[in-house]
Design brief:
Layout (H helix, E strand, L loop, with lengths): L8 E11 L5 E4 L3 E2 L3 E10 L4 E9 L7 E2 L5 E2 L4 E2 L4 E7 L5 E10 L2 E11 L5
Antiparallel strand pairs: 1-11, 2-10, 3-10, 4-9, 4-11, 5-6, 5-8, 5-10, 7-9
Amino acid sequence: MNRDLVNNIAEAQSVVVVAGTSGTGTYAGTAVDLQGYDSAEVVGLLGAAGAGTIKIQECATSGGTYTDVAAAEVEGTQGTALVQNGAVSLGYKGQLRYIKAHITVTTDGVIGGLVIKGNPFVAKA
């Protein structure tokens, strides 16, 4: 191999790991800036119990109004069910600068979401 993965990706936490307090809830993550990267993946995490779904939201500005990414701009399916003790990934193919994970918990559980930015315009050394 000529290149390793660690120098070609950057991780950003979007939804802080939380336990659903009332059994259900919506968790809109913090914005992740994709400037300098050509691809992104949103990962939803679920612990041993619970149920929920994940989708990607996007916006042209960090403090603007975030909307659901159109199905044609997502690799995978918006609203995909989270997997207990596992991770679910959605690929972002859109063109906007800011994205975030958006998780809906339908049954109490520990959840989290992160964004992995890939294909940097300038790779780390």
